[in-house]
Design goal:
The chain has 215 residues and is an alpha/beta fold. Helices cover 49% and strands 13% of the residues. It contains ten helices and six strands; from the N terminus they run E-H-H-H-H-H-E-H-E-H-E-H-E-H-E-H. Helix 1 runs antiparallel to helix 4 and helix 7 (143-153) crosses helix 8 (167-176). It comes from Streptomyces hydrogenans.
Length: 215
Amino acid sequence: MKKHLVWDWNGTLLDDIAAVIGATNAAFAELGLQQLTLERYRELYTVPVPKFYERLMGRLPTDAEWTLMDGTFHRYYWERAENCGLTPGAAELLAARQAAGATQSLLSLAPHAELLPLVARHGIAERFVRVDGRPDSSTDGKSGHMVRHLEALAVPAERVVVIGDAADDAIAAAHVGAKAVLFTGGSHSRASLERVGVPVVDSLEEAVSVAEELV
């Protein structure tokens, strides 16, 4: 049986880390918090996002602070997401796998309504047998979404490899009994990814190659 890849979007297929850092710093500026460098962001980032803010603030944000920061982040981010390109090699890898008869899908915590047109504008929507974004405003990680995603696909977890840029992608994979490969081009440092205990790679081409060996 052939392998099925479940791709993450932000920081994996979409090269948007600069927009994410800018949006995070815009949100922090609302509360007078210290601006983050890319290195510090990658070392501290975690899901759910309020936990990330807790690492930086020394406490969880209040409901009012969260509402303010979350609104600022998304307003800034979506203004810039339009100008973010795909990660180098992503379009070619997706096309090659599809041409070879392999299946792949996209599962993201980006809001579903915003995700679909953005994927389509990059000309890769037809590469996936299914595209799922976050259906609600929850700040939960990806594990529950991964369960529903695989149920909708009717693909056995033992055939699945998840490719993402965050520890949460590996956690979601383990939650359903799938494998994972983590990419260093997004939200986490290599050191923080290596602590997760799954293969860590520096390119999407290498991620696909490793995924082929895992299942």
